[in-house]
Amino acid sequence: MNTYTFSERGATEAIEEGRALAPKFDADGLVTCVTTDAASGGVLMVAHMNAEALARTIESGEAWYFSRSRRALWRKGETSSHVQRVTEMRIDCDQDAVWIKVEQAGPGACHTGRRACFYRAVPLGKAPDAALVLEFRDADKAFDPAAVYGAKAD
Amino acid sequence: MNTYTFSERGATEAIEEGRALAPKFDADGLVTCVTTDAASGGVLMVAHMNAEALARTIESGEAWYFSRSRRALWRKGETSSHVQRVTEMRIDCDQDAVWIKVEQAGPGACHTGRRACFYRAVPLGKAPDAALVLEFRDADKAFDPAAVYGAKAD
Questions:
Q1: Distance from CA of A146 to the nearest CA of B (A)
Q2: How many other CB atoms are there within 10 angstroms of residue A47's CB atom?
Q3: pLDDT surpassing 70 at residue B2
Q4: What's this model's pTM, rounded to 2 decimal places?
Q5: ipTM of the complex
C-alpha cells in the first residue's frame, strides 16, 4: 500500500489536457473530495484526501479520507462498517478536487445518522441575517449514531 | 448587498441539528462549494465561497464564488455569460461545505470549454504510479474558451 507516485505538476496545458495524474495538494497536503451516491446521484458528503488516502482509494476501490479534525487517515466505515465502494473516480480540470461515485454500504454516510450530510436547505432570495431559518430536507435519521459509532465518528 | 450576518458558531449540537446558518469558514475565510447540474445531477464544478460570495448567492439566487487564484470575488458568468441560477442550496452537517444545484446558462461551466470540470476518470484497482493514465470522459468541448473568455477565465 505504500508505493505510490503521482506525477509532478507541470504546465497548465499538461495539467488540464494531459493524461497524467498530478494532484494539486493544498498547504495542508489535501485535495477536496466530493462523494456522490452512485444510485441516486445525490451528494453524500464532502471530505478531504491526503496523498495516502487518495492512493489507497485508487488501489483498493474503497473510499479513504483524511480527517482534518482528527488529523488522521480514515478508512470510511472502519468504525461503522458503512464502507463506500467506488464505482468511478474523476479529477477536475486543475486537479485539486476529486469526485467519487460510491455504493454506500449500510444506511448512511453521515455521522449524524442520516443518509447524507446535506440534510438542511438554505432559503434563497433575501440577504442572510439572524432571521434566516434552515429547512430540514431528507433529514430522517437512518441509523442511531451513538449505537454505531460510540464516541468515535466516521 | 452588504448587509449580511451569519450566526455565531455554537455548540456541536446547535451546528448539526439547529436551524441557524453558522458557516465554518477556514483559515482563508472560505467554505467549499459543490455545484451540480439541476437537470442531470452531475457535478459541474467544485469551488469556494467567502462570506460575501455566500451572502450574494443566497440573496441573488445566482452563483457567486471566491477565486483563490485571483483572490477576488467572482460572479459566475461575469465574463462568459454562463451564469448559474441556483435552484436549491444545502449546507452540510458541520457547515463547512455547501451544495448548490444550478441551472447552467450557456454550454458549460468549465473554463476549459467543457460542460463540467470532471472530464477525466482515474483508473482504479492498482497503486498509482507513473504508468497511471487518465481516461477522458464527457470531455467534448462545448465551447471555445479563447473566444468566450479571452485571457480571463471564469
A1: 14
A2: 25
A3: no
A4: 0.95
A5: 0.94
